[in-house]
Automatic annotation (TrEMBL):
InterPro entries: Aldolase_TIM, OMPdecase, OMPdecase_AS, OMPdecase_bac, OMPdeCOase_dom, RibuloseP-bd_barrel. It catalyses: orotidine 5'-phosphate + H(+) = UMP + CO2. Pathway: Pyrimidine metabolism; UMP biosynthesis via de novo pathway; UMP from orotate: step 2/2. Belongs to the OMP decarboxylase family. Type 1 subfamily. Catalyzes the decarboxylation of orotidine 5'-monophosphate (OMP) to uridine 5'-monophosphate (UMP). Residues 3-234 form the Orotidine 5'-phosphate decarboxylase domain. Pfam families: OMPdecase (PF00215). This is Orotidine 5'-phosphate decarboxylase. Its EC number is 4.1.1.23. It is an enzyme of class 4 (lyase). GO terms for biological process: 'de novo' pyrimidine nucleobase biosynthetic process; 'de novo' UMP biosynthetic process. It comes from Candidatus Desulfovibrio kirbyi. CDD domains: OMP_decarboxylase_like.
């Protein structure tokens, strides 16, 4: 079954912890995952990660690292050592950058087996095409976002990544080519919820049925009149879906 990750896209620690606490207190059949992205991490820093871990959350740190291989290797190491369970790099950083991130995580895992730092492997995930891109909007890239995402995903599988961030509509093609690659899908919109800046959206039930491993949902939950009701409704809709992959 797909896991549901709540994107805590909020301006400060007080707001984020209030939301995280409220969702944890509710009686829900949910393995609690949250996403900390660039807004919240820039405002709060790594101390927030510890607070969320203490609340029982697994953390997806989505900072989309994109830099020279040595710099990304260091950033990945720092993120994993801070106790996150999943983190992102840009596939567009290319093979050497992605492999360098992989090596950095593997070296950290070897150290943790020897009793220091982070306990347990973080998933290394590559961003393909942002779900906010409509066809023709990607600067300098002639492919459609779908074709670009599928092409990058097949490369990412060979570069040592554990999964990719992609639109729900790309999951079937990606899984067909690389069945072991995890698909992390943002751009999730329950029926009737406004798309906002997203351009390649899918409903949670359809993304779950397509085989998405993780659904990343922000505004449909955190901006809902009642976030607990919204989370419960999405959990119910994905629980009832047989996976097609
Ligand atoms: O509010 P909404 O549900 O659109 O939030 C989606 C989340 O997923 C945001 O935190 C955004 O940064 C993230 N994301 C995305 N598209 C990607 C990668 C990450 O929307 N390709």
């Amino acid at each position: 079954m797909s896991q549901l990750v709540v994107a805590l896209d909020m301006p400060d620690k007080t707001a984020a912890m209030a939301m995280a606490g409220r969702l944890r207190e509710a009686d829900l059949a949910w393995k609690p995952w949250c996403k900390v992205g660039m807004e919240l991490f820039t405002a709060c820093g790594p101390a927030l990660l510890e607070s969320l871990n203490k609340l029982g959350y697994k953390i997806f740190l989505d900072l989309k690292f994109y830099d020279i291989p040595n710099t990304v290797a260091g950033a990945v190491r720092a993120a994993a050592a801070a106790g996150v369970h999943m983190l992102t790099v840009h596939c567009q950083g290319g093979e050497r950058m992605c492999r360098s991130a992989r090596q950095s995580l593997d070296a950290l895992d070897a150290e943790s087996r020897e009793g220091s730092l982070h306990n347990g492997q973080a998933l290394l995930i590559g961003v393909t095409a942002l779900t906010s891109f409509a066809p023709g909007e990607m600067p300098g890239i002639a492919l459609t976002p779908a074709a670009f995402a599928v092409s990058l995903a097949s490369k990412a599988a060979g570069w040592g990544l554990d999964g990719v961030v992609c639109a729900g509509v790309d999951v079937k093609k990606i899984k067909l080519a690389s069945p072991h690659l995890r698909c992390i899908c943002p751009g999730i919109r329950p029926q009737g919820f406004e798309a906002g800046d997203q351009r390649r959206s899918m409903t949670p039930d359809k993304a779950a049925a397509a085989g998405a491993d993780y659904l990343v949902v922000g505004r449909p939950i955190v901006a809902a009149a009642d976030p607990v009701v919204a989370l419960r409704s999405i959990l119910e809709s994905i629980a009832s879906q047989p996976r097609m992959t």
